[in-house]
């Protein structure tokens, strides 16, 4: 198939490169010339394992180009995938970029005789595709939906695993306006990707995406709530509790006696909360969208509330342990919202930094690749400094908080805490250290969900 992709952000670029790798002819479109030039120089503007190698491959193979020329892309392809940003601001999802893209595509479709499918890939609140996008396309093209195709095909990519997730999806959700739209979209995936294709209407596709993210986020907040109960009970480890729960076959499908995927319930893991560009934004957007429809969600709201307070609690627990945090040197291991990314959007580290600074602590933060991004958001001053490596951060610290489960931090030897720190107190926000091993070395260990 010949496919245009509008927007070379995370979803757009990964989808473009992967679809080209699977043999489709892809043109990625963006207004930002510098990004297009960068991509055509075979460099990826985002950090994503495996993406740059694949980009080089598809450019060499001739199945992928990046361009600013939307008109020629739409005129010469069968499908336009809209993968522009849908930021959350002022308590609502902002659909301006979606609307603009639909208008620009529609104006080109006015002149195009051949059938063309417009497919939304960005995460949008239910009804966006069959109302806003359809109306804008109809008004700008002068055609009725049906004369052009309309589809909604959400992405379930995780940062750091985006290429793998795209190439080996669990399912393809295809929301279609009519049968013809579905048939065209099916050709993108059928027999090319090894996954079931789920045919639904446009708003069901949109709803599946939000429901998936809200469920995973809710599993995390649920785990964090159980962790708090465990801390109060004492001598109970939330990790053991959740493992004991998830081995239930009702969570984990089995073949014979073998669990298909023991990692499947991995979102039942307590810690200092979820962050990133998707979960917080999408769960908030779903809540506010539903509220506008007349139902203020309760469970989803609680998921968000628990996630706001979870990073605060780790600071409060440390404060209770040390007596005060004022003028204490606190090392912060990890700034990224999860390992293997430099993304700090909505990272629990930002809340932890705010809470520590509010208590007049001196923060010494370290992260393998996310320091530059953090400086851009919260700056750098006498009370908030950045270390070159974890040894420097730990030097003479009164306590350390582990925020991101980077593999390098998990390897820190227990006696390094004892040797380097003034007082070896470790607050483990991701439960990557072994309490017994650390305590045997003389470390005071505070683990989420363990007291
Ligand atoms: C998520 C969804 O997984 C993906 O399907 C969707 O398309 C986009 O949002 P991503 O934001 O890349 O992907 O991150 P993910 O790996 O799912 O982790 C999200 C957050 O949850 C991280 O902050 C992580 O640390 C946290 N988390 C995850 C937990 O706190 N506990 C867990 O058990 C799992």
From TrEMBL:
Q: Which residues does the entry assign to the active site, renumbered to this chain?
A: 278 (nucleophile)
Q: Which domain of life is it from?
A: Bacteria
Q: Which residues bind substrate?
A: 156-159, 209, 267-271, 275, 338
What's one Pfam family here?
Answer: UDPG_MGDP_dh_C
Q: Where is the UDP-glucose/GDP-mannose dehydrogenase C-terminal domain?
A: 331-435
- What PANTHER family does the entry give? UDP-GLUCOSE 6-DEHYDROGENASE TUAD
Per its record, how is this protein called by name? Answer: UDP-glucose 6-dehydrogenase
Q: For binding NAD(+), which residues are annotated in this chain's numbering?
A: 30, 86, 123, 159, 281, 345
